[in-house]
Design goal:
The chain is mostly beta strands and about 80 residues long. It has strands at about 1-5, 10-15, 20-25, 30-35, 40-45, 45-50, 60, 65-70, 75-79. The strands form two sheets. A five-stranded mixed β-sheet has the order 2-1-9-8-5, with no helix packed on it.
Length: about 80
């Protein structure tokens, strides 16, 4: 699936071969995998974990934001 992590200042991360994204939801951490159902949710301060096939996990600290999952694309608008 495609992942974009965007802040007001810059694009933190973009990739097309993401297998899993774990995010800090306001009601607890949750994961998004390939072909996840459409979703919009609010995020709190914490780490976003990104798993790419054949690579080490990547971590990004955010101060909060919003996640949108639609048509196998994940967009994180982070603070």
């Amino acid at each position: 699936m495609r992942l974009e992590i965007i802040t007001p200042d810059t694009t933190l991360f973009e990739a097309d071969n993401v297998h899993l994204v774990q995010v800090p939801g306001i009601d607890g951490s949750f994961e998004v995998m390939d072909h996840h159902a459409p979703l919009i949710s609010v995020l709190k301060k914490g780490a976003v974990k990104v798993l790419i096939r054949g690579d080490q996990p990547k971590f990004f600290e955010i101060e909060g934001g919003v996640i949108e999952v639609l048509q196998n694309k994940v967009l994180i608008l982070a603070e």
